[in-house]
Each structure stands twice: as C-alpha cells, then as structure tokens.
Amino acid sequence: MRQQQSLHIRRMISKITAVLSALTAIVITVGSFALPTFANEDISQTVSSILEYRFGGHDSETLQKAADTDLPKGAGTDSEWYAMSLSQYCDIDLSAYSEALEKYLSENEIASATSREKYALSLIAAGKDSPYITEALCSSVGEQGIMSYVFGLHILNNGFTAEGVTAESVASEILAMQLSDGGWAVMGEFGDIDVTAMTLQALAPLCGSNSEVNSACERAVQLLSEKQLESGGFMTMGAENSESCSQVICALSALGIDCTSDERFIKNGNSPIDALLSYKGEDGSFSHVSGEEANETATVEAFYSLVSYLRMKGGSTPLYVFDSVQESPSPKPAEGSTQAESKAESKSTSEADSTAEKGGIGYKPIAIGAVLFVGTGAAIVLLILKKRSWKNFVFIAIIAGGLCAAIAFTEIKTEKEYYSESSSKTTAVTGTVTMSIRCDTIAGEGGAIPDDGTVLTKSEYELHEGESVYDILLSACKENNIRLDTKGTKNIYISGIGQIYEFDFGELSGWVYHVNGESASVGCSSYELKDGDSIEWLYTRNIEKDL
C-alpha cells in the first residue's frame, strides 16, 4: 500500500512539474524574458540581429536604404562607426553618406584631433580620396596622445601619406609609449584593456614586416590574456563591460587570433565572444553592463567587433584596412543567416511596440490570458486522467494566480515612457538645491550641442533626505526630457548627457560636476547633498584643465 501511495505521489509530482514547466515557458516566451543560451549562438545571426535593431533589417535592400537616408542624417554625429563597419560587412554604396559628411566637415571646425582622424577613416571606408584625409594626417597625428597616434596609423595603413609622417614613424612613437606590463594607457603606469586592444588593432598590419612591432604585440596579447576574467570578459574602470570585450575581439581578430579556440583566451570554458554575447538583449541591442538597458555605444562596438571576427575567419583584411582601397571586392554577409525569418521577427516586434505606444492591449493581457489558457488546459488534462482530487485543482489555481499577479505587477517601460514619467519620492524634503548643465567648451560645434552651451539653465530642485548629485541629475533629466547615459549600477558614471558623450572631443573629454564651485573627489552617486548646494555639470575637453 505504501509503495503504491509513494508511486502515486511521484507520478503526481511529475505531472505537476510538467504543468509548471509549461506555464513558465509560456509566460517567459510571451513576456520576452527568456534567457538565451549564447554558447552556441551563430555569430552571423547576432550580427543580423544588431542590424535588425538598428536599421530594421539586414537584407541588402534595407541596408542600402539606410546608407542612402539614415546614415547621411547622422553624418558627423553618430553614423561614422556604422558606416565604417557596413563598408567592411557587405557591398554597399556610401556615396550619399560621404557627401553628407563632407558637407558637415565644410561647415564645422573640428577641434578634436581624434575626431578629425575618425572622419578621415569614414571617408576612406566610403571610397573617397578626399583632401580632408591628408589634412587630417598633417594636423592630427600625435596631437592628442596615444589615441591620435592609433587613429593616424589606421589612416596610414590604408596607403595614405603625409609629409613627415609614415606608418613606421608612427608605430615607433606608439612602441615608445608601451608600459612595463606590456599595455598602453591614456594615463598612468598600467595598461588599460581598451586602449591596449585599440592600439593592437592599429599595429596588427605591421606585425609581419616589423619584428619590434611583433614583439610588442606579443607582450600586449599576453597582458590581455592575464587580465581576462573567468567569465571570458574584461574589466575597465572597475567594471566588467561589453565594450572591453568588443575591443579585445577586434584586436585579436586583426592579429589573426581566433579568440574562440586560442587557449590563452579560454577561461573557465568561456571565450571573449561568449562574454560579449551575455550582454545581448532580446531586441538585438547590447548593454554596457550585463542586465542593464540598451546602450548605443555598446551595440555598435559589438557589431563591428563581430564583423571583424567574421572577416578574420573568412581570410579578409582587419577591420580598419578598408576594402574600398583594396583590389579585392568587399565580402558579402556571412552565409547561414536566415534573413527572412529574422526580418519577420523584427517586424512583429516593431508592430507590437507600436501597438503598445498607441494604447493597444499591450503585453500584460496577452500574457495573463496565456497563463489562464494553459492553466485551464492543465485542469482538463487532470480530468481526462481522472485525477480529480480538489487539491490538484487548487494547486494549479495557486500557481496560475501567482504568475498572473507577477505579470500584473511587473512594469516594463520604453525609453520614451521612462523619461516622460515624473519622479515620486517618499523621503522627507530637507531643503533645495540648484543645478545647471553646460557645455561651453564645445558650444557651436553642431549636432546635439547647443549654440550657447546651455543644456539646462540653472534651476531649483527640492532636496529629499539622502539624495545625491546623481539623484538630482536623474530627476532633472526626466523632467526636461534630456537623454542621460550612464555606466555602472552602484558607482554611477555619467557617460553622456543630452547626446553629448565622453571622448566625443578627444580622449580626455567628458562630463564632470562641481558642487559650490569645487570639483568633487567621489562619484556623483556617492556625493550626498545638503540644503543650499549649487551643482554644475560641465563638459571638459581636457580633464578640467579647460574649465
């Protein structure tokens, strides 16, 4: 008797477990919360999903339309990395983009040396033999430290020349900057992951013909291997992030190293690409830190790093040695991508998002309906099996009710909804503070930059108990619909305000804050304010020396 009861209980547990699994799978699928397994994900599919996210498709017609309309609109502001990457990914006509970029350059004075070099590289990628490219070489190489040498070497690696500047002379300057640990950095005594990887990308084309460069690269590769984490990823500025993975993938691919099989870059069974794919969102975008919202910089860097990897596997040149100046034609997108299926999925997602924004039924009723449907189905199965104990039905009801409640009380917001919502604070008001956001050092540079340098005029805000500089900034940006881009979760770092980002005007540029006229020594999320404090957010070109 006891054996029969035990067998009966085990069978019931098995059935209930199956029901729970079905319920959970349906809810996760409907709510788009499924955790993908990245280890076996096809890289070309990931590249396609990024293009779906950014341009709405990855077929040749859609990408050419983007090159004709989307990229020209962002010429000089946010299109350059996509333009360069697309030129190395598929056959594409970038003439409309290059015309728009040349117009932007003719109307704007570009103060940053690295920005001038970036624009020159974009023109090369687009197939232009523009005087601007030589002018950028003459005026920019070495003007802003290590990165201006790196970008200058990329231009030289494509066969462009300037008086007194050669690939060998620039490489020599870069080698002289190599630190004792084998890496490179903007400042300090220890190699930085991102700067080291980006430097390797520029040196890679010279490795075969220059033994000194080859030795320097070997030391740098060893450093990257030693700094790799058990996740397969890398840490920069105290935080593990996707951009560092992307830069390392790009560097190793430029050197002909397959980071998915080279033992030096497999830690705990994880490669840099495994780590990078852990930052991928369901919509094809990538985040800066795992689990956070989409980040445009992280997404485009993931795109071009994977393109770089695919080029290495296909025997093509490194990412920054452009096909536009080579004798061989540009490679086509990697075979094996199911473009029609991905396009259909993207269209379905876009339509669902559009319905939600226009006040449609949204995802919650659908998800709850799915739970109730499966729950009802499970109850019918029990009836058919003649398992009619009231306990079984109560158990299913409890599980279904719990899942419905979880769906009902979980709120997912679009970026538009997030920035338009008002802040609701429960702590006591302890006074008021004032805050302004200015970018006078780059005023009049065009794009998203205000002509008078004012992103936010000096305004007064209620100060609640325990609030930090970051809390006030976040509230102000929501209230005034100003885009705010951050890195990290505990120690928040401000990477962009109002679509003006760090490094836009050189490797030493970015946002800083002052309280009562003084520069702070802690992060903005750690600085607790007091009544009467005055906060200033300022954009600097040169780590505050210009403020």
Tell me what you see in this structure.
- The chain has 547 residues and is α+β, with helices and mostly antiparallel strands.
- The protein has helices spanning 2-31, 43-55, 60-73, 80-89, 95-107, 113-125, 131-140, 146-157, 167-176, 193-203, 211-227, 242-254, 272-277, 296-313, 339-357, 363-384, 390-408, 415-420, 469-479; strands spanning 235-236, 239-240, 429-438, 454-464, 484-487, 493-497, 500-501, 510-515, 518-519, 534-540.
- The strands form three sheets. Strands 4-3-10-8-9 form a five-stranded mixed beta sheet, covered by helices on one side. A three-stranded antiparallel beta sheet has the order 5-6-7, with no helix packed on it.
- A hairpin with a 2-residue loop joins β8 and β9 (518-519).
- The relative contact order is 0.10.
Task: List the main descriptive attributes of the protein structure presented here.
single chain; 547 residues; 10 strands; disordered N terminus
Question: What's this entry about, in short?
Answer:
This protein is α+β, with helices and mostly antiparallel strands. It has helices at residues 2-31, 43-55, 60-73, 80-89, 95-107, 113-125, 131-140, 146-157, 167-176, 193-203, 211-227, 242-254, 272-277, 296-313, 339-357, 363-384, 390-408, 415-420, 469-479; strands at 235-236, 239-240, 429-438, 454-464, 484-487, 493-497, 500-501, 510-515, 518-519, 534-540. A 5-stranded mixed β-sheet has the order 4-3-10-8-9, covered by helices on one side. Strands 5-6-7 form a 3-stranded antiparallel β-sheet, with no helix packed on it.
